[in-house]
């Protein structure tokens, strides 16, 4: 379905639109005020395949159905608001080009799994952020505050560089089968952010964080499925970070 | 889960189920066992770490024990056809095979039980279910390990 606008009066006679193709977007819609059931709804769009999935969602929301609800802020892969399950894989809608995910077939878009769906593509992120807070993601030090900045060698900085890139989009945690079954598990994102401080030479709270992740719902629940590494839009080696925390726990003991 | 699809022209979410309204909202679906407010109190034990290590170490040993066991029982001269009371009695006459089987029994049973504990922790949704499933598992494990150990040590080849 194309949308008639003021500039293009007869919708059949759109000229020079050869770069546009018809793509069906199959969205998982849910509105608890209307129905307890979620349903797939198809939206065929005329769209440039070089556009992103987020652009298609905007088109649907702005031109077809304003009730469609999803999160996005930056639209450029920085804020981590728009992680969703696109064609069965967790991705950022703002970093996924339509041409890269086979627009010949309907493109499915669902909310990320394992968190309560509030409406359409919006989930309750509170349990995710609770796990994040529980690993104390802030610098912990003892003694007097130095009068100048806390210096660190490039090698020491390199040690945890990978895990500083996290944007807390929840793509990893909501791709983890252990988390799907039991939300008590801290999940990859919380471990990644604990890793960022555990291996920071300036931080002195590593021991406390290791103790937290040594608990029943900590790193030992990880089964090394690599779903998190595949899902991360920042290319963080999430599974490796989790294994490094496991190794730190073991070498601390032996 | 509904998988119906409808064309865009008829996107009217209200038409399908008019029973729910803003005054009578449908229940929100909770995922199983959502994270509780605060992480449970620290137990300060390394139980989960030792469990994790045990799975790997016992796995390495089990590769040798189980594969060796299968080859001897099923492949080497004659395979299954020669297994019988006499065959078992013959092997258990040697302390080496007694030890092999004893080790395999303990490692496989504890490895399997810890694996099942992991799976129960993953999939049981209610605390009660989880508790009772584990009780059944631990009972079965203790029973099998003790009975097997008893048989290996008290086996009497002259029994009639
Ligand atoms: C033959 C050599 C074996 C090796 C190398 C091996 C290795 C492993 C490892 C490393 C795990 C942990 C997986 C994880 O935490 O991600 C595991 C889990 C498990 N193993 Fe074994 N194992 C062996 C034999 C057995 C046997 C004989 C049994 C049954 C008695 C068994 C039953 C299980 C179960 C039930 C699990 C839990 C599965 C899960 O976590 O989803 N394994 N095994
Ligand atoms: S580790 Fe990657 S996938 Fe996980 S929350 Fe951070 S940016 Fe997202
Ligand atoms: S909208 Fe900010 S990361 Fe996609």
UniProtKB/TrEMBL annotation, chain A:
Pathway: Carbohydrate metabolism; tricarboxylic acid cycle. One of its GO terms (molecular function) is electron transfer activity. Residues 21-115 form the 2Fe-2S ferredoxin-type domain. Its cofactor is [3Fe-4S] cluster; [4Fe-4S] cluster; [2Fe-2S] cluster. It is an enzyme of class 1 (oxidoreductase). One of its GO terms (biological process) is tricarboxylic acid cycle. Binds 1 [3Fe-4S] cluster. Binds 1 [4Fe-4S] cluster. It catalyses: a quinone + succinate = fumarate + a quinol. It comes from the Bacteria. InterPro entries: 2Fe-2S_ferredoxin-like_sf, 2Fe-2S_ferredoxin-type, 4Fe4S_Fe-S-bd, 4Fe4S_Fe_S_CS, Beta-grasp_dom_sf, Helical_ferredxn, SDH/FRD_Iron-Sulfur, Succ_DH/fum_Rdtase_Fe-S. Keywords: 2Fe-2S, 3Fe-4S, 4Fe-4S, Iron, Iron-sulfur, Metal-binding, Oxidoreductase, Tricarboxylic acid cycle. Its EC number is 1.3.5.1. Residues 156-178 form the 4Fe-4S ferredoxin-type domain. CDD domains: fer2. SUPFAM superfamilies: 2Fe-2S ferredoxin-like (SSF54292), alpha-helical ferredoxin (SSF46548). Belongs to the succinate dehydrogenase/fumarate reductase iron-sulfur protein family. NCBIfam families: dhsB, PRK05950.1. This is Succinate dehydrogenase iron-sulfur subunit.
């Amino acid at each position: 379905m194309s949308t008639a606008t003021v500039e293009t009066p007869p919708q059949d006679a759109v000229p020079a639109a050869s770069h546009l193709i018809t793509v069906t977007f199959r969205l998982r819609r849910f509105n608890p005020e209307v129905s307890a059931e979620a349903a797939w709804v198809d939206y065929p769009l005329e769209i440039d395949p070089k556009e992103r999935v987020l652009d298609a969602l905007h088109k649907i929301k702005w031109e077809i159905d304003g009730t469609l609800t999803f999160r996005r802020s930056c639209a450029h892969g920085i804020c981590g608001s728009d992680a969703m399950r696109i064609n069965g894989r967790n991705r950022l809608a703002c970093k996924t080009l339509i041409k890269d995910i086979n627009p010949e077939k309907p493109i499915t878009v669902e909310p990320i799994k394992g968190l309560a769906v509030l409406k359409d593509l919006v989930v309750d992120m509170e349990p995710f952020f609770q796990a994040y807070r529980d690993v104390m993601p802030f610098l912990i030090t003892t003694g007097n505050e130095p009068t100048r900045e806390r210096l660190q060698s490039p090698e020491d900085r390199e040690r945890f560089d990978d895990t500083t890139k996290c944007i807390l989009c929840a793509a990893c945690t909501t791709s983890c089968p252990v988390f799907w079954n039991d939300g008590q598990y801290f999940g990859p994102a919380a471990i990644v952010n604990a890793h960022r401080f555990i291996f920071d030479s300036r931080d002195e709270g590593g021991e406390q964080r290791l103790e937290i992740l040594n608990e029943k719902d900590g790193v030992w629940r990880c089964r090394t499925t690599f779903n998190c590494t595949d899902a991360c839009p920042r290319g963080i080696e999430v599974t490796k970070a989790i294994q490094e925390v496991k190794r730190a726990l073991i070498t601390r003991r032996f | 889960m509904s998988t119906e699809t409808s064309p865009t022209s008829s996107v009217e979410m209200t038409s399908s189920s008019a029973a729910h309204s803003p005054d009578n909202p449908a229940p929100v679906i909770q995922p199983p066992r959502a994270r509780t407010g605060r992480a449970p109190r620290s137990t300060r034990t390394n139980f989960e770490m030792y469990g994790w290590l045990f799975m790997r170490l016992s796995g390495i040993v089990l590769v040798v024990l189980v594969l060796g066991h299968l080859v001897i029982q099923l492949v080497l001269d004659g395979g299954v056809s020669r297994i019988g009371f006499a065959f078992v009695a013959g092997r258990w006459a040697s302390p080496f095979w007694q030890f092999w089987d004893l080790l395999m029994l303990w490692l496989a049973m504890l490895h399997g039980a810890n694996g099942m504990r992991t799976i129960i922790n993953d999939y049981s949704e209610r605390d009660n279910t989880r508790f009772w499933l584990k009780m059944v598992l631990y009972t079965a494990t203790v029973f099998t390990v003790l009975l097997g150990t008893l048989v290996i040590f008290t086996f009497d080849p002259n029994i009639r």
